[in-house]
Each structure stands twice: as C-alpha cells, then as structure tokens.
Design a protein that fits this description.
Largest sheet: 9 strands, mixed
Number of strands: 15
Bound molecules: threonylcarbamoyladenylate, magnesium ion
Number of helices: 10
Shape: globular
Structural class: alpha/beta
Strand content: 15-25%
CATH topology of the largest domain: DHBP synthase
CATH architecture of the largest domain: Alpha-Beta Complex
Helix content: 25-40%
Radius of gyration: 20 Å
CATH class of the largest domain: Alpha Beta
C-alpha cells in the first residue's frame, strides 16, 4: 500500500469517509498533534489502530467528535464543572474523561467503564469530523513509543505503507497532546498535562487536582506508565541549573566524533552560546509547539541530543517538561 498525503477538500474528505466506513484508519490533523482515526463503533477498525501503531492493548483511546455532537449520547453523566469547562475551553486541546454509556466499541477504552472525549479546534479536524459524522477514536498518528507527529510528513515517516490516507492540515500549532482531565469525581483531576493547564482549569471551576502516577500502582490513565515520545537517537537531559555540565558533555562528545546537539529554549541558547543547537523558541507557546518538531529534526541530524530543561516549570511548561523527561528517559 502506498500512503497518500492529501490536502483537505471535498474529494479527500469523501475518500476519507469511504475509508472510515469500510474500517480503514485515516490520519488527520488536530491543533495538538496528528491523530490516527477510526470509527469508534467499529471494533475491528479500532483494533487495526492498535496493530498499526504497535500500541499496548491496555492503553485506551480518545474519541474525537464534531463541536455539535451530542456528547451526552456517549457518556452517562456530565458534572456541572465539566459543563463550565466545555463552555470555556471547547473546542480545544482538553480531553474529558466521563463514565461511559458503552455505546462505542469496548476496544476504545480497553474495557474501562470510562470514555475520554475530545472536541478538537483545528478547522481540518472539524471538517473531517463533520463529514464522516461519527465519533472517531484516535491516538496520536505515530508508531508507539516514537515522538508524536506534528506534520503530515512526520505521520508519513512512521506509517507509510500502513494506512491509505493522511489528511494534511499543515504544522500543528499546539505541539503537545491535549490535557487529559478526569471528570468522574467531585473535582476535576489532570491525568496528563497539556496546553489547558491545571491553573486555568482551577481558575474556571475553583478547584483542580493533579494525578501523580507512582511506579507499581494501577495507572488512572494507562498511557502514563509507558515510555513515550522518544527520538531514534541517544538523549540526555540536564536541569537548567546544570547547563554547564550539559555544555561540557556536548564539547566532550563532539571532540570524540559524536555528533551532539543541545536542545533548549532561546534564552538558554544565548547563555550557553554553542554552535549546534535545536532551539525550541522564545515563548512558552513556541517551546511547546516546537518540541516534537525539533525532536524529530534532531533524530535526523544528531547522534546525541542533550536537552537543557526550561527554567520555568509550571503552567504550559509542566506539559513540556513531562514530555521532555519521557523523551530522555533511559529505559
Ligand atoms: O491531543 C491529543 O490528545 C492527541 C490528538 C490526536 O487528539 N491524541 C492523543 O492520543 O494524544 P494518545 O492515544 O496518544 O493518548 C491518549 C491518552 C493516553 O494517555 C490514555 O491513557 C488516555 O489518553 N486515556 C484515554 N482514555 C482514557 C480513559 N478512559 N481514562 C483515562 N485515560 C484515558
Ligand atoms: Mg500518543
């Protein structure tokens, strides 16, 4: 199978719809990362996604719906705080986990009694969801454990020959995956940090907790226990305070003939002043938007990426740090 990258228009949407209706997954853009979508009611199609990605069978998927879709038809209870959050942040990079009505295939949630629902804001995603007029189960459109894709070319690099069509919506502006929020309890709990921060949620509904996964526990969001987001080259990470050590390693490795690059934000790059850098950007938004893009660029040209963590680690940077730490985790 030769995978085609198609601009989003009437014809490619029709092709995509036919593929979705016949059980073939289609990759599509969102404002966070590209997704690999299948009809959430079709168990075989959902199982195909796990196969294509090599995804562990206990890591549940998010269902993506059009902004006018009746989410109440899929989930059994929507607390008042979740309604407020939906008004404030949807469509957008916030996934909400509810008690499921068990209408979609059980393969979507891997047997859990909850369902994660997301209303993406990307115009191309909305057009696709409206055209197919179905809830679409979709993980990020990368091979399992690899860096999430933020361009159609990234998806192609991982999935060429495994899917028919990639809908091309340009580079994703968000750059890290959506915030996953558990909305089954008294107060919302962040299961995965993202661009909608715990602070923003708490400011809207008064309270918001953050779930910290501990080794050995049953994860509330199974995805948290897996190694993720890793580029296909060696990686090391240093705290901002340890940047001199990072520069020392960079010099040592390059003098030994190892092609090492430093990944950091723009202000850190000015401080350390080395030649081979992967600069993430200036603002928090830029850093998040470029993280996966630069990790994928880095794996192409470097043998070793030495990341220097951002100095600030709250808000959006909590999400960036979480991904950077996982990308650099040696397992
Ligand atoms: O931004 C995003 O969320 C992207 C785009 C494509 O929408 N999707 C994405 O999907 O990142 P994926 O499969 O890579 O990550 C889904 C995360 C996993 O950590 C998974 O464990 C969690 O959502 N999740 C899904 N269903 C859940 C559930 N019922 N309860 C708790 N966590 C759930
Ligand atoms: Mg993923």
């Amino acid at each position: 199978m030769q995978t085609r990258i198609l601009q989003i228009d009437e014809q490619s949407l029709e092709t995509s719809k036919q593929l979705i209706l016949t059980g073939s997954p289609v990759a599509f853009p969102t404002e966070t990362v590209y997704g690999l979508g299948a009809n959430a009611f079709d168990t075989e199609a959902v199982e195909r996604i796990f196969e294509i990605k090599g995804r562990p069978s206990d890591n549940p998927l998010i269902v993506h719906v059009h902004k006018d879709y009746d989410i109440g038809s899929l989930v059994s209870y929507i607390p008042e705080y979740a309604e407020k959050l939906a008004v404030e942040f949807l469509p957008g990079p916030l996934t909400m986990v509810y008690k499921s009505r068990n209408k979609v295939s059980p393969a979507v949630s891997c047997g859990l009694d909850t369902l994660a629902v997301r209303v993406p804001s990307h115009e191309g995603a909305q057009r696709f969801l409206k055209y197919v007029s179905l809830p679409i189960a979709a993980p990020s459109a990368n091979l399992s454990k690899h860096v999430s894709p933020v361009t159609a070319e990234h998806v192609y690099a991982d999935l060429n020959g495994k899917i028919e069509v990639i809908l091309d919506g340009g580079k994703c502006c968000g750059g890290i995956e959506s915030t996953v929020l558990d909305c089954t309890g008294e107060i919302p709990v962040v299961l995965r940090s993202g661009l909608i921060t715990r602070e923003m949620i708490a400011a809207t509904v008064g309270d918001c907790a953050e779930y910290a996964f501990k080794e050995g526990e049953t994860a509330r969001s199974p995805g948290m226990k897996y190694k993720h987001y890793s580029p296909n080259c060696q990686t090391e990470m240093y705290a901002f305070e340890e940047r001199d050590k990072a520069v020392g390693l960079y010099k040592e490795k390059n003098s030994q003939g190892v092609n090492a690059f430093i990944m950091c934000d723009e202000s850190t790059a000015k401080l350390i002043n080395v030649e081979k850098t992967l600069i993430l950007g200036k603002t928090e938004r830029e850093v998040a938007a470029n993280l996966y893009y630069k990790l994928r660029e880095g794996e192409k040209k470097a043998q070793l990426i030495i990341a220097i963590a951002p100095q600030k680690q709250d808000g959006i940077m909590a999400g960036v740090m979480n991904r950077l730490a996982k990308a650099c985790k040696k397992v």
